[in-house]
Request: fold
Amino acid sequence: MRLDKLICDCGVSTRKEAAAAVRAGQATVNGNVVREPDKKVDPGLDTVVFRGIPLVYRRFVYVMLNKPAGYVSATDDRSLPYVLELLPPEYRKRGLFPVGRLDRDTTGLLVMTDDGQTAHRALSPRRHVEKVYSFTCIAPLSPDAEAAFQAGIALGEGEECKPAILSPDGKRTAGTVTLTEGKYHQIKRMFERLGNKITTLKRETFAGIALDPALAPGEWRELTKEETATLLAAAGTDKPE
Reply:
């Protein structure tokens, strides 16, 4: 791996900034100053220090964010707050992005990573990755609502949802929905087809990973080793192709 790429991948600078700093003598490899940005280094064997800070290389980073309302699931937006703004600069420099999207007013668990293969496969319809949402709705659900969800609700114009699990509470104005797909505004549209309307929606789990209850809206943390293993297993990237 090139030295400037390793520095960039550690999230401490951009690739361009890393190259300039290396040329200025601000990096060492195994105790020796290196001025060539294209110097080949082995992340597992070589000790790299950049601007006095030893670097610990990680190929990918996985983050759990408790998405607040009002933020769009994007890496950039000129007119609206976006989720990447909630992460520190070193994570933004790595190029993290959301694994899937939550609507602007939907809250809860959003996984972010720079692992494109795992993100792509976790979102693939073939993987059937489960997502669980808690909801409140404007009126009590009808007695046949659970059966309608289980049968697969037609959204109109030839678009039909896969079977889903609806679990309302005793008053039938709140509960959970479990999906294995992610169509545009899917849950809201499903409720509208039943003559009802969602008032709040929060993602509680994704791919077997539960939102950490200690995270307030807008807070984040990296996934644990166990959670990362769960995500990779759900996406099928825990095994070689």
The helical segments are 3-9, 15-23, 89-93, 116-123, 145-151, 186-193, 225-235. The domain at 131-206 is CATH 3.30.70.1560 (Alpha-Beta Plaits). The CA atoms of residues 125 and 145 lie 24 Å apart. The longest strand covers residues 198-206.
